[in-house]
Amino acid sequence: MIRNVTATKTPGADFDAIVIGGGFGGLYAVHKLRNDQGLHVKAYDNASDVGGTWYWNRYPGALSDTESFCYRFSFDKELLDQGSWQTRYLTQPEILEYLNNVADRFDLRSSYQFNTKIVSTRFDEATGLWHVVTDKGETASAKYLITGLGLLSAINKPTFCGIDDYAGDIYHTGAWPEGVDLSGKRVGIIGTGSTGIQVIIALAPQVKHLTVFQRSAQYVVPIGNWPEDTETIDTYKANYDEIWKQIKSSNVAFGFVESTVAGIDVPEAERECVFEEAWQRGGGFRFMFETFNDVAISDEVNTSAANFIKRKIAKIVKDPEIARKLTPGDIYAKRPLCATDYYGVYNRKNVSLADVKDDPIAEFTTRGIRLASGIEHELDAVIFATGFDAVDGNYTKIDIRGRGGVTIRDKWADGPLGYLGMMEADFPNMFMILGPNGPFTNLPPSLESQVEWISDTIATMEADGRSTIEPTQEAEDAWVETCRTIANMTLFPKAESWIFGANIPGKKNAVMFYLGGLGNYRSELQSVRNSGYESMIFDRQTATTAL
């Protein structure tokens, strides 16, 4: 049902709810609150249209590493049945087209104001309302504030001496302009994370010369991106009930059944066979979680997986010195990467590798990049594939103030906190979609779970006549400790990774995800509902006023 609600139910407010963000999370929040509940909703996004992360990340080779059949919403059966795709993984244009179709289907754009950035938000204790201010100086108020700011959208662009003197073009993959043609040019790319490897693979056949500035060598397995025909897609559609049941009860929610076999109990030769089968099938999360259940837990099994990939690198890369530079020295415990023949790219004559951990970037010159050794790489264009200030980056960039004027920046000075990945003590009626300490999974099923919980919670508040809701500090502290405890049971904290903030200079290393799996996470959400929200404080300012 599509509603164009214009009457606000909240006395004294401009709107019942304000939603920030036009990606998967923001779109679904507008649909649930406006179309399902009939609330008056105002939504903002700084892009010119919907898409969120996939609006901005238009870089060459942009691709989801979640399989096409489950990188989508599950809440609407007809929407699922209408889905179509060409290959096993969705390209950026396909994802953007899909989100545009969702916006059209549910008339979501009518609630949005685009090309608008929110610069500050403030909770007014006297009225119980949130007030937002845009970059245009406009203001709006609402009872509920829902933020779909995105895990990976606050771009990280390192600073380098001399960069303003560089005469060539500079791009960041997270804000890629339209119409860029790098054919026949000398291009440098800084960064070899998930985005970097996609750009490297896409540009290598196009450019005159590609220089890769690598800080950290990566474990990259094949992606296995083959075409999927109508018969295959129809089989997925016919089995969606069971598929989504499995996804929502699984750990990583990538559409496969995670292994229950402990690699530590399997002989090394048999492990090798299992890894080889996974290598041939493709998929980063499959390689880490479908092979054995302890690749990210057991030092021995992790070493087996890492050594398997290292042997592949040595076999694929023809130049032994380049192979050595591409071989990781860290454990295999970052977000698992996958791509089409990444290591094979370095066999091309027009691709060179600069190991900037051994020979750091000293400065930009007018003609290119000079390393500490004095070697200068002349470049027509430089691409920053340096990722994002993930999870909390967009929150600390906005002046968000809760009770008593406390800011998110201050509360998260030693690392982001957050209850259930959605709420923060002292910030009443603020709900974060994919906020800190939420599940580490394929994102659409997780954000769907969160938006539905948020919507149900708001519906309960409206039915019961509640004014505010916020977690107790004790509940938040316990949740953060749970996230830390689970993370420390794995090998992930031992690797330098963006999932702990290690990619941002000066940022304190902190746990930012719940690594207990989507199934367990959904059970936690259900427990909060079943308990009557005993971990929450309702109507706090009313109680204070009464005293």
From TrEMBL:
Keywords: FAD, Flavoprotein, NADP, Oxidoreductase. Gene3D superfamilies: FAD/NAD(P)-binding domain. It holds the Pfam family FMO-like. InterPro entries: FAD-binding_Monooxygenases (IPR050775), FAD/NAD-bd_sf (IPR036188), Flavin_mOase-like (IPR020946). GO terms for molecular function: flavin adenine dinucleotide binding; N,N-dimethylaniline monooxygenase activity; NADP binding. SUPFAM superfamilies: FAD/NAD(P)-binding domain. It comes from the Bacteria. This is NAD(P)/FAD-dependent oxidoreductase. It comes from Sphingobium fluviale. The lineage of its organism: Bacteria, Pseudomonadati, Pseudomonadota, Alphaproteobacteria, Sphingomonadales.
